Amino acid sequence: MEVASGERPALVPVQGIPLIRYFAENWPLVEDFQARPDDVVICTYPKSGTTWLSEMLDMIYQDCDAQRCQRAPLHLRVPFLEFAVPDAPTGLETLSQAPPPRLIKTHLPVELLPSSFWRQGCKVLYVSRDPRDVAVSYYHFYRMAPVHPHPGPWPHFLEEFLDGKVSYGSWFTHVKGWWAKAATHPVLCLRYEDMKEAPSQQLNRVLTFLGRTLPPGGATAILAATSFTTMKANPKVNYTALPRTVMDHAVSPFLRKGEVGDWMNLFTVAQAEAFDARYQELMAGVEGPPIHPSPTPGADPVSH
C-alpha cells in the first residue's frame, strides 16, 4: 500500500459499505480473522466514544493501574481490527502479538464483523451517540485524517453523512443493526450521553456485563484516568504518536471537545430541522437506547 504526498484516497465499498481505501484493500484478511472466546469487542460508529471505552476497559483489565496503561499507546493496547495504512503495522498484525484476553476495537457494522466472533460468542460493547454530535465530530476528523477523502465544506459533508456516503456508511443502519443484534448475542448497548451524565453507573453496567470486579479505589482511578481532560493530555491515549499522514493534529486534535450538544455550534436552524426529519423517518419504530434528536431546551442552533 502506497500513498502519494497530499493524496486523499476515495472510499472503496466492501459488501456495499464504504470504507477507507487501505482498510478495503486489507479486507480479505480481516474477514478471515479468527476470534477467541475470551476476546472482548469495543464497537461504535466512528466518533462515538470508542477511545473513551477502550481506555476504560484497559484500566479494568489492568487492575485499575494507570501506570500499566502507560505501557504503550492505546492503538497497541486495544488494537483496531480493520486498521491498515501505509508504512504501519495493521490491526491484525498488532492483534497477533496481543496477549489474552484481547480487547479489540472496531467500527464495523454488524453485517461486516467477521463471523468467527459470532461462532465464539464474544462479548461486544456498543456505544451510540447523538448523530448530530457524531456528524460534527466526524467532519473535523475527516479534516485531520488524510486517509479519508476531502470532506469539503460542512453543508456538503452533512449531506454525505445523512446519505451514508462517509466511511462505514449510514449511522442509522449501523446503530439499528447493532441494537437488533443485542437480542440474540451478548451485546451491551451504551449511550455516550449516559456515560457523560452518570459515569459511575455506566461503569457498573460494564463491569456486570464483563463479570469483572474492581479492587478498592478502582472505580475512582478509572474515572480519573478516563476523564476527557486527562485523556486529551495523555500521549498514550490522544493518538499524537501516529504520523501526520494518518492524523494531522495541526488541523484538529483527535480528542477535540468530547461534549454533548456541540452540534448546536455548527448546525443552522434549517440543517437541524432537516436532520430531525430524516431521523424521524429512518428511526421510526426502532427499539433501542433513545438518542433524543431534539434541541436542548433554552439552546438554539446557530443561525447563519
TrEMBL record:
Annotated localization: Cytoplasm
Please list the GO terms describing molecular function. sulfotransferase activity
Query: Which keywords appear in this protein's UniProt record, sorted alphabetically?
Result: Cytoplasm, Transferase
The EC category is transferase
**Do you know which SUPFAM superfamilies this protein is assigned to?**
P-loop containing nucleoside triphosphate hydrolases
UniProt key word Cytoplasm: yes
Q: Could you tell me what this protein is called?
A: Sulfotransferase
Keyword check for Signal, yes or no: no
